[in-house]
């Protein structure tokens, strides 16, 4: 699936779910997908990714 299509699909998901999917991808793939999203949506998801990686887990933030 190309980045634009993936961005459209992930943008429809819960932000935590989208972040969980993106952290499992290679950083270039995740970056390409985020760059295709609306900037506000991408920022929300990127924030969730930072929370997940800072906590050292893929579990949803508390």
Main features:
Flagellar motor switch protein FliG middle domain-containing protein, FliG_a-hlx, 62 residues, mainly alpha
How would you characterize the overall build of this protein?
- It comes from Jiella pelagia.
- Residues 18-51 form the Flagellar motor switch protein FliG middle domain.
- InterPro entries: FliG_a-hlx, FliG_M.
- This is Flagellar motor switch protein FliG middle domain-containing protein.
- The chain is mainly α.
- The protein contains four helices and no strands.
- It has helices at residues 3-11, 15-23, 27-35, 39-55.
- α1 (3-11) packs across α3 and α2 (15-23) crosses α4.
- The radius of gyration is 11 Å and the shape is globular.
- It starts with a helix and ends in a 7-residue tail after the last helix.
- The mean pLDDT is 90.
Detail the poorly predicted runs: none
The average pLDDT value, as a whole number, equals 90
Structural class assignment: mainly alpha
Distance between the termini: 32 Å
Q: Which geometry do the CA atoms define?
A: globular
Number of strands: 0
Beta-strand content bin: under 5%
Task: Classify the helix fraction into a percent range.
Answer: over 70%
Query: What's the structural domain tally?
Result: 1
- Report the order of strands and helices: HHHH
Number of H/I helices:
4
> How many strands, which pairing sense, and closed or not: the largest β-sheet?
none
What is the CA-atom radius of gyration, in angstroms? 11 Å
InterPro entries: FliG_a-hlx, FliG_M
Protein name: Flagellar motor switch protein FliG middle domain-containing protein
């Amino acid at each position: 699936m190309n980045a634009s299509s993936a961005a459209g699909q992930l943008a429809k998901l819960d932000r935590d779910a989208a972040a969980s999917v993106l952290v499992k991808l290679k950083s270039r793939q995740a970056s390409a997908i985020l760059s295709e999203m609306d900037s506000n949506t991408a920022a929300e998801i990127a924030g969730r990714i930072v929370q997940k990686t800072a906590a050292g887990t893929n579990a949803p933030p508390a």
